[in-house]
Automatic annotation (TrEMBL):
Belongs to the binding-protein-dependent transport system permease family. FecCD subfamily. It is a multi-pass membrane protein. The lineage of its organism: Bacteria, Bacillati, Actinomycetota, Actinomycetes, Micrococcales. It is found in: Cell membrane. GO terms for biological process: siderophore-iron import into cell. InterPro entries: ABC_BtuC-like, ABC_transptr_permease_BtuC. GO terms for molecular function: transmembrane transporter activity. The chain crosses the membrane at residues 23-43, 73-93, 105-126, 132-151, 163-183, 203-226, 266-286, 293-315, 321-339. Keywords: Cell membrane, Membrane, Transmembrane, Transmembrane helix, Transport. It comes from the Bacteria. One of its GO terms (cellular component) is plasma membrane. It holds the Pfam family FecCD. This is Iron ABC transporter permease.
Amino acid sequence: MTQTVTSPAPGVAVVRRPARVRLLWLLVVTAVLVLLVVASLTIGSRSVAWSDIVAALGGSTDNIGQAAVAKRIPRTVLALLVGAALGLAGAVMQGVTRNPLADPGILGVNMGASLAVVVGIAWFGIWTTMAFIWTAVAGAALAAVFVYAVGSLGQGGATPLKLALAGAATSAALSSFISAVVLPRGDISANVRSWQVGGVGGAGFGLITPVLPFLLVGAVVCLLSARSLNSLALGDELAAGLGERVALARATASLGAVLLCGGATAVAGPIAFVGLVVPHVCRLLVGVDHRWLLPFSALTGAGLVTAADVVGRVVARPEEIAVGIITALVGAPFFIAIVRRQKVREL
């Protein structure tokens, strides 16, 4: 059973789900995620037996099958972490801006992180994972501030339409800057372009461990911002009337999203559309309460990136298609559908 009420945004229906429906969907999403993890460990250029999977999970690499699974384990873990980070960051960004089109890719945050990393590699010779992460976080933060500042100019402040346009223009400009930096540098262009597509292939725990603190801190900050995001959904004036510090709430939630985006982009490249698609799907399942929406977005984002990685391995065997390409194929039509349906209104 669902209850439909009128949201603060005119003409937009808000569906609230009862707790038992949310718990049911939690079980479904968790079960699907477990199946996707099993598929990620099983499916690849070489098929493996269950005995090899169990042995590899125990640390054994005695045969080719076990060695293949051992390589897929960190790849699967990275897909789960990156997907959860991007899904959660997308839900937070949509809540902070009240923009149904908000997404780390569309708002230029991922591209800002990418440009910062590329400039760091080309001009400053950074090469450690930790340096990549700090540089990506700084670039993501600068891009987020710039897009929000540009989108806030003029009458009406930061409307969804202006933020979407500012983000799209900023992403295009930053992409051009990346090309300008990379093209003269033949020594780094191949690796940079491969990283720019976005993917989780070749991951190892040496890459995952340094980024974990950033993702954990970002996730905790975002999850603790759930009540504040619920207040912001009522409108700034009403939220302030309820005692919410609107500017502080926005800044705190945005900080968590920037940490997630910067960390995910540093280790996997700029994977687009995950943060756009996932929150909208989760709202259909559990409603608009951010206390449920945020963790669901993390779980669903983890599942989407893991599924995209599995699909990328299957459709072009023995070669692979990067995760970023698969998510773009899914996300681009979804983006168009949202624009047509929502007409870029506020959430």
